Amino acid sequence: MRRFDQKSLLNRRNLLVGGTVGLACTAAQSVMAQPSTEKKSLASIASQNGIIFGAAAAREIFVDESYRKLYLGETKSITTDYALKFDALRPEEKVFQFEGADALVEFAVAKGLIIRGHTLVWNENSPPWLKNKSKAQITKIMDEHIDKVVLRYKGKIDIWDVVNEPFWPGHNASGGYRQGIWYDVLGKDYIAQAFKRAAKADPGAKLAINEAHTERSDELGLAIRNGLLRLIDEMQNAGIPLHAIGLQGHLQPQFPSNDAGYVKFLEQIAARKLEIHITELDIDDTIYTGSVSVRDKQVAERVYAYLSHVLTVPNVKMISTWQLSDRYSWYNDTEVLRKSGATRAPRPLPFDSDMTKKPMWFAIEKALNGRKKI
Ligand code: XIL
Prior knowledge:
Helix content is 39%, strand content 14%.
């Protein structure tokens, strides 16, 4: 529930566009540069700098024409926000609701957009009917789910977030794994099994682990980073197909961060020869105070600092925001608002609720353009 509601592809199957190396720009440079008079989109600016720019999209793009136009103008890829999540797709054991995902995939294919399927297996958002099943039953449900969903979009969905958020140290499971139906019944082997199954169903798709909170430099963020690197090593040693690491990038300025340290982490992923995709960029602006313009400036500065560092790592190939306009951000969801304690409409994205560019748009533009060419 939203509370504040008012292929001429870059080689579909080989997103390693390459060709750019970045070096950090001075963070002190202002991100409030005047809008250029040229009509450039984030997708075109990104592509000139070796990046595919995209955003998560949901049904709003079919009901709000101004929003749809924003996607067509600004993005080169879309992520299926909630349409492909297990509980949305399978509210009952025998019911598959493909309508929402079909519409997004059809739209993206017609418009030549790359598609990121989100997500096949996640220990959150499990429907109640998954409870009290045996190991054999859960194995069968997961395998059949992956077969059915991946095969339906074979050749259309270019990248899969096969497993979302495998880690949550707060659950105190060994290795820091997130607990939930898949982990509880299958142990951490559910991850390898899911990747093997997805690769079999569509050998041409790019397969990713997507993880949250790694931007934080506190104990939690560092534990997740370590867990993730260990998991990558285990998967690679076992020959499990894994092509990319998605890092969500939901920036949380209320927690400590250290962008230079984060670059070191990205370099550790890059050393393992994987692509890096920033998959869900937005920012929790709850802690910023002052007028809208003062807060928007702080948002832009934080986003610029983060991205200008991230973009120094050549293996970073994609940046997607989680939606495009403040109007449709998940930060407006009742439950998320309750958790964040926000008392005013969140402004986490590059466009405001009237689809007008905010300083965050210019911060992204500037960070992309600051990526040094080889
Ligand atoms: C969010 C969706 O956007 C919301 O509509 C839904 O209610 C909750 O989930 N990390 C993820 C995404 O990986 O799947 C989440 O999406 C946002 C946080």
